[in-house]
Design goal:
8 helices, globular, mainly alpha, 0% strand
């Protein structure tokens, strides 16, 4: 039975990561007049997801772990939709000045994303408050892994990485590319990989623990796969892998040079 639970969790997480990313990219490619309706749908999904976090926080079964995990991703999806459509970003919507370096460049880059980042932190705080002291903490850990891994990705492409996909960002966010940098490596990258690998190892150890409950196995398997996918997204930054091909069905290649992939922002 634990093998079935682990395998099901891995397949489910990979599919949800792949499909949800593609769905958001597809919505983002629609005419701008559709954005308000897409955000309305995303808001309904986010509201239902928060309710699901509340409803599942006391349930310690594999189904409870799956519900909490899915609802955390549903809440996260609202932030992805609102950001990629340019609805919740930051006060600065212009390119980085050519002479901006060091702390000034970092401050300007932060101003392009600060509303988005603040909304993510507030949502994480809400999920923490909802699940405080509850036996099912899968939703909280899911959101925190997403939050920390995405922050790591943003900092790494700001500091400089060899590769970042330039096909998927729309015209209204193309100014973000001016804040990014290509370089062989940066000091943060090995720390990001080391921390992510340590977390993935700990979650794998828990998932494979013969004495763990099925709830613990399911939750650890879901979180392990999510962490592994975050590490894969980081690997895309340094390896010449065609990651854009994974979502070609949702966002066909454009002849225009666009900004970085949503995996990296």
């Amino acid at each position: 039975m634990p093998v079935v639970v682990i395998a099901s969790a891995v397949v489910y997480t990979v599919f949800l990561w792949w499909f949800s990313t593609g769905a958001i990219l597809w919505l983002d490619r629609l005419p701008r007049r559709t954005f308000r309706w897409s955000l309305c749908v995303a808001t309904v999904v986010a509201g239902a997801s928060i309710y699901g976090v509340v409803a599942s926080r006391l349930t310690t079964t594999p189904a409870g772990a799956l519900c909490a995990f899915s609802c955390a991703l549903g809440a996260w999806g609202w932030h992805e939709v609102s950001f990629l459509m340019g609805l919740v970003t930051g006060p600065r919507t212009t390119r980085c000045p050519p002479d901006a370096t060091g702390w000034r460049r970092f401050t300007l880059a932060t101003c392009t994303l600060i509303y988005h980042e603040a909304a993510l932190v507030l949502t994480a705080a809400a999920v923490m408050a909802i699940t405080w002291g509850a036996p099912n903490q899968v939703a909280l850990w899911t959101f925190l892994i997403l939050l920390i891994s995405r922050l790591s990705a943003k900092l790494n492409i700001f500091l400089g990485v060899p590769n970042f996909t330039e096909e998927f960002f729309p015209d209204h966010l193309r100014y973000l590319t001016s804040y990014l940098r290509k370089s062989p490596t940066n000091a943060l990258f090995p720390l990001s990989i080391s921390a992510g690998s340590a977390l993935a190892g700990a979650l794998a150890w828990l998932a494979l623990d013969p004495d763990a409950s099925l709830f613990a196995v399911a939750g650890a398997s879901l979180l392990f796969t999510l962490t592994a996918l975050a590490l894969l997204e980081h690997a895309f930054m340094v390896l010449p892998l065609p990651d854009a091909a994974l979502w070609r069905w949702a966002a066909p290649a454009s002849p225009k040079p666009n900004a970085p992939s949503p995996l990296d922002i």
